[in-house]
Protein: GCN5-related N-acetyltransferase
Amino acid sequence: MMQIKFATSNLDISRCFPVMVQLRSHLTEAEFVNRVQRQQQAGYFLVYVEKNNSIKAVAGCRLMETLIDGQLLYIDDLITDTSERSQGYGSALIDWLIEYAKSQGCVSLQLDSGVQRAAAHRFYFRKGLTISSFRFKRSLQ
Structure:
């Protein structure tokens, strides 16, 4: 049976790493755990899909408020294990996040996605997300 849970302990966070590193390949497990712990202090949270004691998909999110949109759920990170794609785990996770956002009084769910992630974009469109803006970035290092 598939379950969706919050990763609250260091063990939970570490268990999410093998899936998350598929999206954030620059991180080591120790750095991942440290960053999640630091960001949790500012409202970041990890949610994961588990089936048969195996993590299938992970999302890193935060509740926030902006002048343009009001209260929203922002998804920083969303990944399904590459060996588990097209089995409904990512869909179940984003559906859960939508319901969670509604329960928290959010008026929208938002995320950014790299321009190279065409398969992810098709998934987001199927889940009812639309492109609402461009994000511009300038490296400072």
The longest helix spans residues 89-103. The beta strands are 3-7, 45-51, 54-66, 70-80, 108-111.
